[in-house]
Predict the structure.
Amino acid sequence: MTTPSDPLPPLDPSDWEAYRALAHRMLDDSLDYLRDVRTRPAWRPMPAEVRHALTDEPLPRTGVGDAQAYDDFVRLVRPFPNGNIHPRFWGWVMGTGTPQAAMADFLSSVMNPNVGGLEQSPVLVERQVVRWCAQLMGFPEGSGGILLSGGTMANVMGLAVARQERAGYDVRAEGHGGAHPRLVVYASTEVHGWLKKACELLGLGNTAFRRVPVRDDFSVDPAAMAAMIAEDRAAGLRPCCIIGTAGTVQTGATDDLDALADLATREGCWFHVDGAFGAMAALAPSLQPQLRGMGRADSLAFDLHKWGYLPFDIAVLLTREDAALVRTFSMQAAYLASETRGLMAQTGIFFADRGIELTRSFKALKAWMQFRAVGTDLLGAHIARNVAQARHLEALVRAEPTLELLAPVPLNIVNFRYAAAGRDDAARDALNRAILIELQERGIAAPSGTTIRGRFAIRVAITNHRSGDDDFAALVAAVVRLGRELSTD
Ligand SMILES: Cc1ncc(COP(=O)(O)O)c(C=O)c1O
């Protein structure tokens, strides 16, 4: 049995100078890794021995030492990521990160504060980041917010606030079991999958989510939404929340947010906007008109780890009224009571009272340092350039007779396919799936795939500050080449 006086090897380095040398090597290697990212394939499959080592290794009851652990990381882990730091990664919606923000994550881990609250500078840093974000998104003084792990979490929490604020009764106290009318929420058929999960998690049930049809441009039909609300009201249900999307995951469409804000006001509903990536277009003055009405939302969720180019994970939930967050999430506990001075002074458990988590990391630092270092105007200029690149890719696709565009390109997402004349749609789908896999496995580029109105699309979502125009020309050339190659097989 261990006694207090037993000599134990420390968990901190026993030789700080030796560890310093190793840490410097880690830093140098990491900067080289980022600097040289373009020289590597966009993605590479894992060899069987790597998969085996990462799957079947026994629990290390005895350590191998810092240097060996790092070497194992270099050999087994670092070469095989999903690849979103690469200039030709355009799959799903993922940001690239920056070396500066990676360093900020390191500095934040070194401080290792608990940003649930307390009287400390990191809480003020997060509050400042939230305030800056509110300003960028056109939210008024008095608005509130919190940093979360991702768009899904930020949206789920936004819906939790909507439910508390517009249920018509105290959901925190009563839950959903009583005699109150059933709550319903409205969003387009193009809304991201978070909403179904959120309805399930919050106990609304996913049938409480009314799927409203979209128009030809994939934006929601506000008249159809109004008709569904009227129908539900007549059936004795309680319309609670209208959800608009700024930048849908499939095509980058933005709903008519002004029309939805009007409808929400008329109907007494909460208006939540999912702007996971699209809200960041607000940083580019030329794109702001597309987001008209977003600043009227009661709550807005968006990621900084997508089109803010920061490393995972960091997202923002803003609410028009700070108090709404507190009404939804505050808690009292003797062990967390505020004081007038000392560590529990003033801020108390500031963020833990505005969200679910009590212990929270200092993710704000990477946003704070990145914003300060380069300025939000430059981030906006990169966002505008990504949109210009999407238009450039659209033009390349239109100019190539063997390619076919499958959706409008309102923002930064391009859906297209190899047209394969003379084949039916099922054969075209199979061919384009094969083209996509070859693009990835040969390391040429990493778009993802989806189905648009029943047709398989190669989908390119550009939230990448490292892509150049040549990368899109190379993608088009590769798709045409692979299309020919695979159709003759
Ligand atoms: C429109 C939209 N909403 C929500 C999400 C979920 O965000 P996250 O992946 O950060 O949880 C995404 C992800 O791509 C998205 O595109």
About this structure: The mean pLDDT is 96. Residues 118 and 347 are 6 Å apart (CA to CA). The longest strand covers residues 238-245.
